[in-house]
Amino acid sequence: ASASDRIRVTLFPGDGIGPEIAESVKQVFREAEVPIDWEEHYVGTEVDPRTQSFLTWESLESVRRNKVGLKGPMATPIGKGHRSLNLTLRKELNLYANVRPCYSLPGYKTRYDDVNLVTIRENTEGEYSGLEHQVVRGVVESLKIITRQASLRVAEYAFHYAKAHGRERVSAIHKANIMQKTDGLFLKCCREVAEKYPEITYEEVVIDNCCMMLVKNPALFDVLVMPNLYGDIISDLCAGLIGGLGLTPSCNIGEGGIALAEAVHGSAPDIAGKNLANPTALMLSGVSMLRHLDLHDKADRIQDAILNTIAEGKYRTADLGGSSTTSEFTKAICDHL
Amino acid sequence: ASASDRIRVTLFPGDGIGPEIAESVKQVFREAEVPIDWEEHYVGTEVDPRTQSFLTWESLESVRRNKVGLKGPMATPIGKGHRSLNLTLRKELNLYANVRPCYSLPGYKTRYDDVNLVTIRENTEGEYSGLEHQVVRGVVESLKIITRQASLRVAEYAFHYAKAHGRERVSAIHKANIMQKTDGLFLKCCREVAEKYPEITYEEVVIDNCCMMLVKNPALFDVLVMPNLYGDIISDLCAGLIGGLGLTPSCNIGEGGIALAEAVHGSAPDIAGKNLANPTALMLSGVSMLRHLDLHDKADRIQDAILNTIAEGKYRTADLGGSSTTSEFTKAICDHL
Ligand SMILES: CC(C)[C@H](C(=O)O)[C@@H](O)C(=O)O
Ligand SMILES: CC(C)[C@H](C(=O)O)[C@@H](O)C(=O)O
Questions:
Q1: Rounded to whole angstroms, how far apart are CA atoms A316 and A322?
Q2: C-alpha of A263 from chain center
Q3: Running along chain A, 337 residues long, what does each successive block of 10 average in pLDDT?
Q4: pTM beyond cutoff 0.85
Q5: Most exposed: B59, B98, B113, B309, by fewest CB within 10 Å?
Q6: Closest ligand 1 atom, residue A84 Cα
Q7: Which helix (DSSP H) or strand (DSSP E) does residue B143 occupy?
Q8: Which of A133, A213, A240 comes nearest B211 by C-beta?
């Protein structure tokens, strides 16, 4: 491949276990000869006034320029006067949809072996508006904001995704029986988009009922689309069904074709630097990113190598009940390639 | 027992399958010689201007006078100009805490056999404020209201309940990392109450993480207390873990010592009148009510008879995979008494 075929991708190794698991990803991608050049950016040590957070302006510029990024866990430093790193990224890059494919991993036993769904979360508004105030002493309120623009945008993405991935059904999750105006608007937008996709079955499920159905029979669901907070809750619930956040990939889609894949688990400072962390979620997020880049062959190869390594069970990190180090697990994946 | 030992209890049989399952409860309570006289009230056929709903003023007066009630499912009739029946009851009777004990039923197999927890939901405010408006075309907002008074009240109830029932831990569920003011106030109130109960372990769990933990390992939880919408979501999730709303009792606690036990499942119009409905949730709600009345012997006897009937498996209704009618199942419970 000539140099011009290579793709520049922004890499945020993040904090805690971030650098170690990012190292694993780089190693596996190198072994699979993925034509990517990483542009690494670390979180700054002081607040950058241009981002009002510890994220540097340069790192945001890098994602805007490359349009593709991969991100490890970022712990927001404690203190006042700056914004959460994750929320800043969502806002600044207009990451409007958080997409999490969630499927039972062959050979890794949980109470469920029949999960195969994708949650698509509106990522910019709703209960995350940040608008809160005290009305009188002892009475506080938060505003949930739903807009037609953001609802249509995420609904469009969900149906587009369903169609592109050969999925048959989109379920809109809501509580419009209580929040008739906000969730009602969200549903209205989903219905409008649904009409343009007659080949996809569309249904609406109330969030409480959805959670009950998910724990009883997750196979009932295919693609789920929902406002911000419900997405936060349901995507973690679904991750729990298959073993936790250490195993689930995630990708954020932004305006202008930006995609920022990320491991959504924490930075696990207690095991940082000890070669014990599980790089699976970040690696599978990297796979999501490759699919976004239409590098499906590479994506398939890497995904198979990861899943086969886990399924065989000989090399697993401690969180999966094994005793392998990060490097041993990573090497096992490379050997499978 | 003299007539004066008898307790008057308001009974709302409700709609759909409501009357049949209420009949089962009456039969079982009669067999167990529970000293209760039922005062039955049906939902009206037109809006009562004094309640702005299909609930009659007399039925609310009955609960206020008796202070104890049992309620079957109520489907809110479609149409404008009146309020949901369930929400009206909560508002008018100031039912501030919804309490749902949730435990794996011996002999009824689900993916979980280790559930034994109680969800306590704030039932009057939060996301259920009903305050919503359109800001400009395409932009709508809902207000979530949290007050110190309601938060303290439900927290007090949760700790009181935990202590009275020999439970060791109370977990407050929240999203205060995002809704710092509203959920922050809720947590502050929980902390204040926790200080008065040093013998009870207190912890705070973010709702997304809570849902993940619940599906991975529900045995981690004991008593959970939370704002309205999180309670709606989590109590249904927990019901799903043990088999669904057909099996889970619920009791609402109101100001002035009112307790309204209720089956939280729907009115199942498709099987109404066919002698197919499962009365378990309403019966176990009746058991919760008996405990509230300190009739623990009767409560234990009836609960054992229900659980043993289900565990034996010979008589089960269709929703539990059996082929018994409501009357056969009810008779089997009576035979166990
Ligand atoms: C850390 C927190 C602010 C964040 C969220 O609520 O969105 C997290 O739970 C997530 O899902 O990325
Ligand atoms: C029917 C609906 C309004 C109600 C609620 O959201 O509270 C129900 O889900 C419940 O839990 O009782």
A1: 4
A2: 6
A3: 77 96 98 97 88 90 97 81 82 95 94 97 96 97 98 98 96 96 98 98 98 98 98 98 96 95 95 97 97 95 97 95 96 97
A4: yes
A5: B113
A6: 3
A7: strand B139-147
A8: A240
